[in-house]
């Protein structure tokens, strides 16, 4: 039985009753406070979860080089491992099952064409200036080719309102995919280069080119250059910068306008809005250079812990009393395509060395091979260098 609030008299004693409903009133107020606190906690949780949510990233890695794509893929997989969703536009197919949160859009077929170009020495030239011209010709060819691939049209046919939170461009030389920024409604963009730091990129991102002590990468100069070498270094560096600006850029912009329309902004305008560049530069291995805050050296990010060598290779290392030299020309320059003069010079040089030579040679046989030279079509390079 609950007593009503108010006064009552019993045995000449006056009593005042507030209410027997007080416990319920207190319980109701406590319940309200708990609900309010839960709402605050829920709001904070939603805010935190939104803050750490994954991003949808487009990675445009259109440089056609398997060795440089290993660097790009390592960065893409690192972002994927952090929980982000990666869409990658690339010439290189996946060797195994496609990882989760990773979509590969393949720009198909270019390697067969490039292999023929390298075999005919079309891109390899004798001088730095000829190499610069041949390189930009190669970049222009790749741009035109890529725009006609099924892979590019797959990406370009994404819904107009499809959202990427970030676009990453391998900007080593070509800029023809920069209009994808406008195509996908102007998300933030970041540039990367696995190709050290080319002068054209260093200059484009506001860095002063210190030609008096930073050698042009396509020469054999050191930091201790003579006056004549400094003049040559200045000449080669600015030939590349000015050739891109005055000769190649008009052609590149025409290729882009043919694909995206005449109203697309100039590529330089897109470049000005990309405020960050990650460069595969490590000053332990590379020449020292001054860098502005928007160029960040991230050299070696593609490296992974070395695995144990196969037993046959481990035996070679164990039995090599004077050490081992690993020789490879990379993904494009094939040793079996060298001239007889070049190949014989290498053989004679290796013959005079006391070390055991592991030579990445793409053919099965090589006449006149010295006893200290072992040839194979492929080696586990990362594991050998980690030995």
From TrEMBL:
Family annotation (InterPro entries): UDP-glycosyltransferase, UDP_glucos_trans
UniProt key word Transferase: yes
Gene Ontology molecular functions: UDP-glycosyltransferase activity
Stretches that traverse the bilayer: 40-61
Highest taxon above the source species: Eukaryota
Residue ranges of coiled coil: none
Xref: Gene3D superfamilies: Glycogen Phosphorylase B
Keywords: Glycosyltransferase, Membrane, Transferase, Transmembrane, Transmembrane helix
Similarity annotation: Belongs to the UDP-glycosyltransferase family.
Protein name per the record: Uncharacterized protein
Species whose genome carries this gene: Ignelater luminosus (Cucubano)
């Amino acid at each position: 039985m609950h007593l009503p609030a108010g006064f009552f008299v019993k045995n000449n004693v006056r009593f005042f009753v507030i209410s027997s409903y007080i416990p319920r009133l207190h319980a109701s107020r406590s319940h309200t406070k708990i609900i309010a606190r839960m709402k605050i906690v829920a709001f904070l949780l939603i805010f935190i979860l939104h803050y750490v949510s994954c991003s949808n990233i487009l990675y445009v890695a259109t440089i056609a080089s398997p060795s440089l794509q290993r660097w790009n893929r390592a960065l893409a997989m690192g972002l994927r491992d952090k929980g982000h969703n990666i869409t990658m536009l690339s010439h290189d197919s996946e060797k195994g099952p496609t990882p989760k949160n990773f979509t590969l859009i393949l720009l198909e077929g270019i390697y067969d064409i490039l292999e023929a170009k390298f075999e005919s020495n079309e891109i390899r030239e004798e001088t730095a200036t000829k190499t610069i011209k041949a390189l930009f010709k190669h970049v222009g060819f790749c741009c035109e080719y890529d725009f006609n691939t099924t892979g590019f049209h797959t990406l370009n046919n994404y819904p107009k309102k499809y959202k990427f939170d970030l676009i990453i461009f391998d900007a080593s030389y070509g800029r023809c995919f920069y209009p994808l920024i406008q195509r996908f409604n102007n998300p933030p963009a970041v540039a990367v280069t696995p190709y050290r730091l080319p002068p054209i990129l260093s200059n484009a991102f506001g860095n002063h080119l210190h030609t008096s002590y930073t050698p042009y990468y396509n020469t054999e100069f050191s930091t201790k250059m003579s006056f004549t070498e400094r003049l040559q270094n200045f000449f080669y560096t600015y030939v590349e910068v000015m050739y891109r600006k005055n000769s190649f850029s008009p052609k590149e912009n025409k290729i882009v306008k043919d694909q995206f329309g005449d109203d697309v902004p100039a590529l330089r305008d897109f470049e000005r809005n990309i405020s960050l560049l990650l460069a595969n530069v490590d000053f332990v291995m590379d020449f020292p250079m001054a860098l502005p805050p928007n160029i960040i050296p991230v050299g070696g990010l593609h490296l992974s812990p070395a695995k144990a060598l196969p037993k046959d290779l481990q035996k070679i290392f164990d039995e090599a009393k004077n050490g081992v030299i690993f020789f490879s020309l990379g993904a494009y320059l094939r040793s079996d395509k060298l001239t007889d003069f070049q190949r014989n010079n290498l053989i004679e040089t290796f013959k005079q060395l006391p070390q055991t030579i592991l030579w990445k040679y793409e053919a099965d046989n090589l006449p006149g091979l010295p006893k200290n030279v072992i040839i194979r079509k492929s080696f586990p390079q990362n594991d050998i260098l980690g030995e």
